[in-house]
Amino acid sequence: MIPSTFDYHSPASVDEAIALLGDLGDDAKLLAGGHSLIPLMKLRLASPAHVVDLGRISGLAYIREDGGMLAIGAMTTHAAIAASELLRAHATAVCEAAASIGDVQVRNRGTIGGSLAHADPGADQPGVMLTMNAEMVARGPNGIRTIAAADFFTELLTTALQPNEVLTEIRVPLMPARSGSTYLKMANPASGYAMVGISAAVTLSSDRNGDFAMHQPEFRQAGGGAPGTDHVSEVRIGISGVAETAMRATAAEAALRERPATAENISHAALEASAGVEALGDIHASAEYRIHLVRIYTERALKAAVARARDA
Fold first, then answer.
1. How large is the angle between the packed helices 263-271 and 287-311, nearest 10 degrees?
2. How far apart (Å, rounded) are the C-alpha atoms in residues 85 and 78?
3. What is the per-residue pLDDT across 166-200, written as a single tens digit (0 to 9) for each?
4. Distance of CA 249 to the CA centre of its chain
5. Contacts of 3 (CB under 8 A, 6+ apart)
6. What is the pTM of this model?
7. What stretch of H or E contains 243?
8. What's residue 220's pLDDT?
9. Angle formed at CA 153 by CA 272 and CA 190, multiple of 5 degrees
10. Rounded CA separation 63/118 (Å)
11. Stretch 228-254: mean pLDDT, rounded?
């Protein structure tokens, strides 16, 4: 189909884009990579009177380390993120999520900022951003503000961005020593969207001799704590593609945090991953099947993240 008529704007700077949003109001939509907005416009599910294209604004595509954080420009493509050695070394889940998105054309044109701002429930990176404790940097007429990932995704296709704000950067904290992360999903074979996507980040105790465990009675009661046993000092699990917004599997995290990183404990924690999840059902997967997959993929993701943490 052909989109309805609209006026096209191509600002040369973020400030110019913000000014256009202020002038045009609710009739304007931002265009980043275009792989979400343009299909919606072709289907007449979105009919903005004005399209503000961010593609010609320089300086919004980059990946760099900055003060203990990994800074990713909002216009950085999925392909660039998937290929980044810096991200692969310090935030593997971000790379793996980017590599799993759509197809080659989508990855080469689609941007991380556009995907996060669109907040599609089947998108891969929202759950990863929750897992990695990321921050979103937005610019508007009142200046710059930073929004924690936990506060960014508010409801279906909705974020905490104001109508006159532009997402300019994503900041991912560097993980401590002996940490690992991963992203696994069951993808819709046609679209590549996640029917279930699980990201996990794990940090193991740095005490390889088990002293940390031997001073924690609850570890011994759980059947762990033998000298040399790795323990989970921190764990975060993100769920994508299941509910109306990405979410953390906090019950599963609590079940594994400060416990031995054994296969038995990981399996037990994975059973808790679906607690509090109001799963969506559709023609691709029922709500019950998605819940089943959450538990399976959580166990796989946790095992992979623990293995990477051990190798770190």
1. 150
2. 14
3. 999 999 999 999 999 999 999 999 999 999 999 99
4. 13
5. 38, 41, 42, 44, 47
6. 0.92
7. none
8. 39
9. 75
10. 21
11. 95
